[in-house]
Amino acid sequence: MKFTTWLLLVPAALAQPQFDLLLKGGHVIDAKNHISEVRDVAIHDGRVAEVASNIDPAAALKTVDVSGLYVTPGLVDIHVHVYAGTGRRNAYDGDNSVYPDGFTFRVGVTTVADAGCAGWRNFPDFKDKVIDRSKTRVLAFINIVGSGMGGGKIEQNLEDMDAQATAEQAKHYPGLIIGIKTAHYAGPEWTPVERAVEAGTIANIPVMVDFGEFRPERPYQELVTQKLRPGDISTHMYLGAVPMLDDQGKVLPYLFEARKRGVIFDVGHGGGSFLFRQAVPAVHQGWTPDSISTDLHITSMNAGMKDMLNVMSKFLNIGMSLDDVVARSTWNPAREIKHEELGNLSVGAPADVAVLRLEHGEFGFVDVNGARMRGNQKLECELTVRDGRVVYDLNGITREDWDKLGPHYAAQGDPKWDATIVGTVRARK
């Protein structure tokens, strides 16, 4: 070979692949971009690089066959409780919470929003103990109670509900604190809601309301038709105490009126806030959720709720389409918390991806009163990608078979290739 010819070939030989990871042949569901069809998804430098009908595998360092599976944006769960590690007994800013990473990636969740465990007094501690140490993207609704969700008298203390201090803390962490939360209040006053809305107005972020005890002095109907602003969120929408159905089983009109004026209705399943006798007839009449969320905590995860995919599967079996269920678990909640860079697979978006399998068979699902609903389909997570890195791989579909690695294979991957999700076999070639 002539020297000049060799020089011409060197750049081609040294050329780097265009993509780090290529997910090939899956059915992509991306509500923002109105995609529901088989597409390839390519990732580079932690971002979505291309979504197209056919991307050449030669352009990627690693290609994974995901045919027969569903490829969605990473799931966004906007109601969880993850302020663990404080040692506080029987409180959501303590032992009732869970560390997020053990419960997110294995079900395709890449982003969560803690629902008010911390207030302005203890939010910095929450940020240090959990948010800054988690691989999951953790955002937060800050509690209108300065001391947070400590249970008992702490959450009933009107004197500790300071709208200005709460708003100032939210403005100190823009984008991280994505809303104001009021929850569990048992008194007759509207004060917690009014101060939460005041704080939300100052900080220009939404309010999420867990109405606590339902009392005639402050009717739920008034909350959603008058007190909340457009963009504010009423969670626990299928709670048994919510006035939802009339004597003939019809959804009450005020709910549709509240949605029309811009109030958002979120599932917030939890350990006590989802009944089939509310949800099934309501969904069949078009009263579907704006967003699907778990209300994950130590009780709910071991009872009827289980996890995000369990809640999504319930709505599939009630009658919602897979496209609608995915939209309410990705793009819708991302918009609700004003993080529109999330919940979609647009080119340039963070490469948060869930690869899901839709299983068919005989399954059972349970509500918070222990009632069972039979179903014939269930979602499972095959693969989760967070910022371009594989963080969960149920069946090792991104890996090489052990018996093809030779008799002396070592730990797969090194820092460079792990960062780009490529196995050492490919790296050594």
Strands, count: 15
> What level of helicity do the residues show?
10-25%
Q: What is the name of the CATH topology of the largest domain?
A: TIM Barrel
Return the domain count: 2
> Which structural class do you get from the secondary structure elements?
alpha/beta
Q: Major sheet: size, sense and barrel closure?
A: 8 strands, mixed
The share of residues in extended strands comes to 15-25%
Mean pLDDT: 93
Order of secondary-structure elements: HEEEEEEEHEHEHEHEHEHHHHEEEHH
The CATH class designation of the largest domain is: Alpha Beta
Specify the CATH architecture of the largest domain: Alpha-Beta Barrel
Q: Give the termini separation.
A: 23 Å
Describe this structure in words.
With 429 residues, the protein is α/β, with parallel strands linked by helices. It has 2 domains: 17-72 and 378-428, Urease, subunit C, domain 1, CATH 2.30.40.10; 75-340 and 359-372, TIM Barrel. Helix content is 23%, strand content 24%. It contains 12 helices and 15 strands. It has helices at 3-14, 123-129, 163-172, 191-203, 220-227, 253-260, 276-284, 308-318, 322-327, 331-336, 415-419, 424-428; strands at residues 19-30, 35-44, 47-52, 60-65, 70-73, 75-80, 109-115, 137-143, 177-182, 207-209, 233-234, 264-265, 353-366, 372-386, 389-393. Strands 1, 2, 3, 4, 5, 13, 14 and 15 form an 8-stranded mixed beta sheet that branches. The chain is globular, with a radius of gyration of 23 Å. The model is unreliable at 1-10 and 414-429 (pLDDT under 50).
List the helices and strands and how they pair.
Layout: H1 3-14, E1 19-30, E2 35-44, E3 47-52, E4 60-65, E5 70-73, E6 75-80, E7 109-115, H2 123-129, E8 137-143, H3 163-172, E9 177-182, H4 191-203, E10 207-209, H5 220-227, E11 233-234, H6 253-260, E12 264-265, H7 276-284, H8 308-318, H9 322-327, H10 331-336, E13 353-366, E14 372-386, E15 389-393, H11 415-419, H12 424-428
Parallel strand pairs: 1-4, 1-5, 6-7, 7-8, 8-9, 9-10, 10-11, 11-12
Antiparallel strand pairs: 1-2, 2-3, 5-13, 13-14, 14-15
Helix pairs in contact: 3-4, 5-6
